[in-house]
Amino acid sequence: MSCKPYFTRVAAAFALTAALFAAGCATTSGPKTRIDYDKAADFSVYRTYGFPKETGTDRGGYSTLVTSYLKSSMSSQMEARGYKYSEDHPDLLVNFFMNTRERTELRPGPTASLGYGYYGYRYGLYSAWPLYDEDRTVTYKVGTLNIDIVDAEKKQLVWEGVAEGRVSEDELQNPKVAINGVVTELMRQYPGRPNM
C-alpha cells in the first residue's frame, strides 16, 4: 500500500489550516474611509485655507505632535490643489479630531471553521491537538481620524472625511508616516479646487 495519498491528505490539511491562520491574523490593507460634503457648496470660490487657533487634536492649550503632523500633511494636500495658506483670514478652516481605543473580539479557533472531520467521533474524549484551539479573545487598537473643512465666513461644515482602522505597532512607532498615508487617502476624495 502506498503512503503517498496519506501524506498528500496530511499536507493538504496543514496547508488549509495555515491558510485559515493567515486569514485570521491578516490586517486590512488600509483604513475604511467615508466622506460627506455639502452638495450645494461651490468649492471653486475658496482660495485660501488655514487652521483654527486650537484644533481638536490639541491638548490643554498646547499643540501636540499629532497636530503638527496633520497640519503638515493637510498643507501639502491643500497646496497641491492650488490653495494658499492664510493665517489671518482663510476662506476654509481645516480642523482635526483623532482618537485611539482598544477593541476586543472573540475569534473562533480553526476547529470551528473546519469541523471535527474524521476525528470528530473522539472529540470530548481526548484533548485536541494544539492546532485545534478553542475560540480566542483578541484585543487590538482602532484609530479614528476626522478631518473637517469649514467655510470660515459662514462657520459651516462643507466637507468631512473620516478614516477608521486597526492601528499596528509600526504605525504607533511612526505616526507621522501613518497620518500622512491616511490624510492622502481621504483627500483623494476631496471634490474641490480654487478657480484661479
Could you explain how this protein is built, in words?
- By secondary structure, this protein is of the alpha/beta class.
- The chain is built from 5 helices and 6 strands; from the N terminus they run αββαββαββαα.
- The protein has helices spanning about 5-25, 65-80, 110-115, 170-175, 175-185, and strands at about 30-35, 50, 85, 90-105, 135-150, 155-165.
- The chain has a 6-stranded mixed β-sheet.
- Strand 5 and strand 6 (about 155-165) form a beta hairpin.
- Helix 2 packs parallel to helix 5 (about 175-185).
List descriptors.
6 strands, 5 helices, 6-stranded mixed β-sheet, alpha/beta, 196 residues, single chain
Show the helix and strand layout.
Elements: H1 4-25, E1 32-37, E2 48-50, H2 65-80, E3 84-85, E4 92-107, H3 110-114, E5 136-151, E6 156-167, H4 169-173, H5 175-187
Parallel strand pairs: 2-3, 2-4
Antiparallel strand pairs: 1-6, 4-5, 5-6
Helix pairs in contact: 2-5
Brief summary of the model shown:
With 196 residues, the protein is α/β, with parallel strands linked by helices.
